[in-house]
Every structure is written in C-alpha cells, then in structure tokens.
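Deliverable D2.4 — example input (structure tokens):
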C-alpha cells in the first residue's frame, strides 16, 4: 500500500542513514506497482462503476413529478446499490485468499464509484423526460449555457471565471448534443456528480491505504455533493490531498534525487494547474496558510537535513510553480489584474447567519430554513455536538500527528479559510461587499471531517504498531495484509452510509412546485416544466404547466442587455458610496409570525434570498 502517514512522524524528526531505516518508510519514488499502475487501475474501476450506476437510472420507470414516484425511484436505486455492493463483496472476499491487497484496492475503488454514482442516478431520475439541466434556463445554468454558445460562435467567457468547464461544455455541445447547450450541461453535471466519489478516493490514495482513503476521503466529500454545480466540489476534494502530497514531498526532500524532484514537481504542478482552471476559489481560501506552512517546513528542512535537501526542495517547488504557470498562468494573470474590479455583492441566506457556524450550509435556496432559527442552538454555549466532535477530532489529529504532512496541510488550509472568512465578514459592512466568504463553509467542514478521520487513522496505526512490537510472530495484522473481516465490515458500513447520503441528496433535488415549497427541488421542477429546443414538453408535465424556452441567441442578447444595464447603474453610482442589496433589517421573521404581514415579509425575503 502507499506510504503510511504514521511513518512520517519518525522520518521528519531524524535523517535516514541506514538501509534498515529506509525499509520502514521507502522512498516516495520506490517502484511498487500498487502505488503506480494499480492506482490507475483503481481510478478506472471507480470511474466505470460510477458511470454504470448513473446509467442504471434508465431502468427506473416512475413519474418524478409525483412524490410517490420519487420515493419509489429512490428505493429502486438503493436496491441496485445493495446488489452491486453484494457483488463487490462476492468477488473481493474469495480473491483475498490469493491476492490480499489488490482485491481490496479495486473493491474500495468500486464502492467509491457507487457512493456518488447513485447520487447522479437520483438526479437523472429527477430529470427523467427532459433534456434540460437543473434550473433549466435560470441562474447559473443559463450563464454557463450562454458561455458555451458564445464559445461556439467565436466569443469568450468572463475573464475572471475559470475557463475549463465552459470550454468542456462548449465541446460537449458541439460534438455530443448537436448544438444544444442545455442538454450538454445536463450530461456534464451528471458525469461530474458521479465522479466526485472516485476523485476523492483516488486523490486520498496518494496518501492513505485503500480502506482509509475510502472511509476518510469519500466520507468527507459527502457534505459537498452539489449536483447543481458539481465541478466546484470536485476541485475541493482533489485539491487538499494534492497539496498535502506536496507538503509530504517537501518534508522528504532529503530522500529525493534531483530528477525525481523535477518529475514529481511537474506532476503536482500540472494537476494543480488543471484544478485551478476548473475552479479557483478554493486556492484563494487555502493559499495563506499553506504558504506559511511551506516556509516553516523549508526552514526546518535546512536545519535538520542541510542545504542539499533545501536545494532539492527548492527544485521541487520551482518545477511545481513553473508547471502550474505553464498550465494556468494566462488565467491567473487575468484573475490578478481584475482582482480590484471584481467585487461580489450578492446576498443570500448564509450571509446573514452567525459567522462561526460552518457545519451546514443554507446556500441560496434555504426553503423552510427561512422560517426558523438558523443555525439551530447548540448544547454548549450555542455550539452543537457535531461541531464539538469535529473540534475534538481535529485536536486529536494535531496531538497524534504534529509533524504529519497530511495533518499539517489540512490544518493549514482550515486556518487559512478561517482567517479569510473572518477578514471578509468583518469588512462586509464597511465595504458593502460579500466576497463569497460563506463558501468557506464547505472547505472548513471538509477539513474538519478529514482531520477527525486522520485522528482515527493515526490512533489505529499507533495501536497497530505497538501490537506488532509485542507479538513474537506476525499474525493476521502483519504489515501488507488486510483482514477479511475488516474489509467486510468497512465495505458494508461505508456502502450503506454512502447509499443513504446519496438518497438524501437526490431526494432534496426531486421536483417540487415552487408555489408550494421553496428548495433545491425547484431546480428540477423548472427543468421539467420547460419546453425542449424542439418544442416538446416532458411527458410528466401537463400542457398548461409547460413553459416556452428561449433560443440560445435570444438568451445571449438578454444577458448582454442585463450586463450593460448593470454596468450603466454602476457608472451612475460613481462617486457615491456603493451599497450591497443586503437587507437593512433582520431578515428572520418574528417568532410565531404567521399573520399576513409577517407572511408577506417572509415571502419578500425568500424572494431576495433566491436572487
């Protein structure tokens, strides 16, 4: 399996000088097949399983506009999951008698694909009968479709927005959906939703053994599942493990040859560049903490291992930075030059919430949350039990792994997100700018769940190491072997957890009439009640409810006119203090306020929150 994170505790505290020492923690480039070629096989297994699980939605024959049909569809998907989970165990357990590690690797990869493939299948059921994506021709969906249309006709996208996804959407529109950007966006959203689990698993396999990569990486990604814009979450779940790998390589620079440092730096830099082009926000929140951590580690590396190790680390970082700039430098330049002009003033539900709360996000479609107190009051000083467990887990991880590269990288990213969050929130009133600070909710929750999982991993590894030292002969817990009982227990427990999370997420996105209830289900309802470009309606929508859609060229003209009007309004306000659209009064309704006046106030605020 990959290098144990626990080994770093000893390795970073003393130089390796003897062959015996190196056997306990091999060089990062040691050519063990499972850390190279089998990692590719695991990735392929996870991707194929995720896409296959998504494809199974075609065999769910229900009416997604009726709640009974939605429940029946979700239950059908859970039945598929149980059958595939059983098939995975039926293959993995017998083959472990001959190949202990390989079946575990491929089985864990398959379950990571099931984790989010079933979610994508649920979204596919919600959109059954329509070619439109979630939210049809509204919100972010129509903006992305317009960018794809513009690229197809020689135009460009917003210079500050990461360009990779709009270009992927444009290519899909041209070569797959015959010029229909809405259908292309639906397909890409389903694919990115399905691949979130395999991405998380494969990224954490750079650092952790298979079962722990599945248990920590994929579990931490569950709260981030966002079928509406899934590519943003994919970047977050992949970014932190890659950055942690870079920190690990810096700590182990004394073990690297210069050629290895160049190759590894190019691989890390290229990966970071692609992620940056896909979505750059998480880089902004993480940069400060990781830069400080990197400088501290470089100083320590020189003090402990000398200038040769420092030079190798500099070569590694230089190659990483160079490759990153080669891949994404043009976009980074545009982003930095426009930083002063790009001011976010968009107000939504999370902007009004208590700023230290990050355990759950209300987003900009809060639904019933707008009618209750949020966040819910916690048991200890307003802090809930879940957050207390996360804080305890983070503290335990720092105590067990104070020099562990994974712990340090994730903790630095969390500290950086906290710093940026409070900085922007504290200046929000003065600057009348939001600057997207509530999006740090996702990064903070992800980091703390990962730290809690790492605390369990480091504790288990420490116990395992002590047990092996006290035993005269290695038993079933010998290094390199995984007990079949542990595999059965982990696969069953995690498989059911992933299935429940997938069902819960998909259920929230099932079509809901916005006249009756606001929430994420409005997105699927909008898609179901919108005529296709060919003029047909979803078979699950009545002719009276079916609305006309606009051709892409009309959408482009409308958005251009809207942008021009916004620019004109900003020009008229030059020399005057700019004001955000945030409410000047408390947006929460009065306790028990169900009378007509409070009802009208709540309705107005719900409309404001939805934008």
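Example output (designed residues):
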């Amino acid at each position: 399996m990959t290098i144990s994170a626990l080994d770093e505790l000893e390795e970073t505290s003393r130089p390796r000088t003897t062959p015996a020492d190196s056997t306990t923690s091999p060089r990062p480039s040691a050519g063990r097949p499972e850390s190279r070629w089998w990692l590719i096989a695991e990735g392929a297994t996870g991707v194929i399983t995720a896409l296959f699980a998504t494809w199974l939605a075609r065999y769910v024959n229900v009416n997604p506009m009726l709640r009974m049909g939605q429940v029946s569809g979700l239950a059908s998907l859970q039945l598929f999951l149980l059958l595939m989970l059983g098939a995975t165990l039926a293959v993995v357990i017998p083959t472990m008698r001959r190949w202990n590690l390989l079946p575990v690797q491929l089985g864990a990869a398959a379950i990571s694909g099931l984790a989010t493939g079933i979610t994508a299948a649920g979204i596919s059921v919600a959109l059954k009968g329509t070619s439109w994506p979630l939210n049809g021709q509204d919100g972010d969906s129509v903006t992305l479709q317009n960018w794809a249309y513009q690229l197809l006709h020689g135009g460009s996208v917003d210079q500050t927005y990461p360009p990779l996804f709009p270009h992927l959407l444009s290519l899909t529109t041209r070569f797959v959906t015959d010029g229909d950007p809405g259908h292309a966006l639906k397909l890409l959203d389903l694919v990115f939703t399905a691949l979130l689990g395999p991405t998380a698993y494969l990224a954490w396999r750079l650092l952790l053994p298979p079962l722990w990569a599945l248990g920590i990486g994929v579990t931490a990604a569950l709260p981030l599942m966002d079928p509406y814009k899934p590519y943003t979450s994919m970047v977050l779940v992949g970014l932190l493990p890659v950055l942690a790998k870079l920190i690990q390589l810096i700590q182990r620079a004394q073990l690297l040859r210069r050629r290895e440092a160049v190759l590894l730096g190019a691989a890390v830099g290229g990966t970071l560049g692609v992620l940056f082009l896909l979505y750059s926000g998480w880089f902004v929140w993480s940069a400060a903490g990781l830069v400080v951590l990197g400088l501290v580690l470089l100083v320590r590396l020189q003090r402990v291992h000398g200038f040769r190790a420092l030079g190798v680390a500099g070569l590694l970082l230089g190659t990483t930075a160079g490759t990153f700039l080669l891949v994404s430098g043009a976009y980074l330049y545009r982003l930095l030059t426009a930083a002063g002009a790009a001011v976010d003033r968009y107000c939504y539900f999370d902007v009004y919430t208590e700023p230290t709360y990050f355990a759950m996000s209300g987003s900009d479609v809060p639904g019933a949350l707008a009618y209750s107190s949020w966040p819910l009051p916690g048991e200890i000083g307003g802090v809930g039990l879940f957050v207390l467990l996360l804080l305890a887990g983070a503290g335990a991880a720092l105590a067990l792994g104070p020099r562990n590269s994974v712990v340090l990288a994730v903790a630095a990213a969390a500290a950086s997100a906290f710093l940026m969050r409070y900085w922007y929130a504290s200046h929000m009133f003065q600057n009348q700018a939001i600057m997207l600070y509530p999006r740090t909710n996702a990064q903070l929750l992800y980091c703390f769940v990962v730290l809690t999982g790492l605390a369990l991993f480091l504790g288990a590894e420490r116990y395992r190491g002590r047990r092996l030292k006290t035993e005269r002969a290695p038993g079933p817990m010998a290094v390199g072997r995984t007990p079949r009982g542990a595999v059965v227990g982990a696969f069953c427990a995690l498989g059911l957890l992933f299935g429940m999370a997938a069902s819960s997420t998909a259920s929230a996105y099932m079509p809901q009439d916005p006249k009756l209830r606001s929430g994420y289900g409005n997105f699927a309802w909008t898609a179901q009640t919108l005529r296709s470009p060919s003029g047909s309606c979803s078979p699950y929508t009545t002719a009276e409810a079916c609305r006309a859609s606009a051709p892409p060229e009309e959408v482009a003209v409308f958005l251009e006119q809207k942008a021009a009007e916004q620019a004109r309004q900003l020009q008229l306000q030059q020399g005057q203090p700019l004001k955000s659209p945030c409410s000047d009064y408390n947006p929460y309704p009065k306790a028990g306020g169900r009378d007509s006046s409070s009802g009208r106030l709540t309705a107005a605020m719900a409309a404001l929150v939805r934008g």
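The chain has 21 helices and no strands.
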